């Protein structure tokens, strides 16, 4: 139990830092706030794929809460948690059905993550105009999700022997 | 290993997005006359788009120019509202989440 808690904490911290660094790096290149690969979610996707389902979910939600407390505000928290819930759900379903590898699962999860964020923003702002972002969100989500899934595929194979889980 | 299903999923998502993008381009929109400014879910003011003005709001500055409105400056850290550009057609919106501001053309 103690070992599990330590491993999950370290992985959660890793996810937290990677999402922060990635956010900064991308904001220098693309000038679109919030546009990034979503590498943090690969951590929990990996845990879920290793049958550490409760751990994967916990790592993701604690990361979202911490990152909103540290770097965000109430609105970013609502958007992240909405995206996190739907994308975690789809990861749980798609990992069970075994038809996809990490790239496909991550692609679907990212699209649904963006969709949930958009819906949440519509509810928070009470304007339907934000839906005009939907096509961009679907395209960018599927590509960034696919890339982060590929990276997870590659690195989880390459560092299989030193990964704690 | 990347499976065939992954690639099919990626391609179909990108195609769906592209199709939606073009579908939205073809929805006809009329030019609007009134800009409705909403702050914190309450209507703050309505202004005509026909006259050029500069409106100072608590956290943002809105400029109306040539029947189009845009946010010229904002106190928020991310400046999304400024980057959303100019709006002038019915139903178009600019949102600034940190300032709880929404601009909509009617």
Would you kindly provide a written description of the structure presented here, covering whatever features stand out?
The complex is a heterodimer of chains A (165) and B (106). The mean pLDDT of chain A is 89. Chain A is globular, with a radius of gyration of 15 Å. Chain A starts with a helix and ends in a 7-residue tail after the last helix. Chain A has six helices and no strands. By secondary structure, chain A is mainly α. Chain A has helices at 2-30, 40-49, 53-71, 74-97, 102-125, 134-158. Chain B has 106 residues and is α+β, with helices and mostly antiparallel strands. Chain B has two helices and seven strands, in the order H-E-E-E-E-E-H-E-E. Chain B has a four-stranded antiparallel β-sheet with strand order 2-1-7-6, with no helix packed on it. Chain B is elongated.
Fill in the keyword field for this structure:
heterodimer, A: 165 residues, mainly alpha, 0% strand, B: 106 residues, alpha+beta, four-stranded antiparallel beta sheet, 7 strands, elongated
Please write the string of helix (H) and strand (E) elements of chain B: HEEEEEHEE
Give the biggest sheet of chain A: none
Number of helices of chain A: 6
Question: Radius of gyration of chain B, rounded?
Answer: 18 Å
Largest sheet of chain B: 4 strands, antiparallel
What value does the average pLDDT of chain A take? 89
N-end to C-end Cα span of chain B: 51 Å
Low-confidence stretches of chain B: none
Q: Uncertain spans of chain A, ≥5 residues at pLDDT below 50?
A: none
